[in-house]
């Protein structure tokens, strides 16, 4: 706000660093596997030290279905989430880590 009480907003610009991976989530194979969901966490920033993360699986009403602690290392980390007791439907996978301001999320479908 200026001294005369006026204000204006500046334009927001998104920045993408070429070749920067950071932390990226994806699913391996068929997310509809009856016994497990395989989550791939690409931990690609060499400046990030190995660190603990929490992986949560929630239904779309936000109810926690499973939670597990994993140790992330640089490269691809495979996390197997038990799915045999889950009803068919859409679920939200969230990954929390101290280096993330907000959890990363990904949807998975169990058929």
TrEMBL record:
<dbReference type="InterPro" id="IPR026444">
    <property type="entry name" value="Secre_tail"/>
</dbReference>
<protein>
    <submittedName>
        <fullName>Por secretion system C-terminal sorting domain-containing protein</fullName>
    </submittedName>
</protein>
């Amino acid at each position: 706000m200026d001294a005369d009480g006026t204000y204006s907003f500046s334009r927001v610009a998104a920045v993408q660093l070429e070749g920067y991976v950071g932390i990226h989530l994806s699913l391996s194979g068929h997310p509809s596997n009856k016994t497990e969901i395989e989550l791939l966490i690409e931990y690609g920033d060499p400046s990030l030290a190995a660190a603990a993360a929490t992986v949560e699986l929630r239904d779309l009403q936000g109810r926690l279905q499973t939670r597990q602690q994993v140790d992330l290392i640089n490269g691809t980390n495979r996390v197997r989430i038990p799915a045999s007791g889950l009803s068919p439907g859409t679920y939200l996978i969230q990954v929390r880590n101290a280096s993330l301001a907000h959890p990363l999320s990904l949807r998975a479908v169990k058929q």
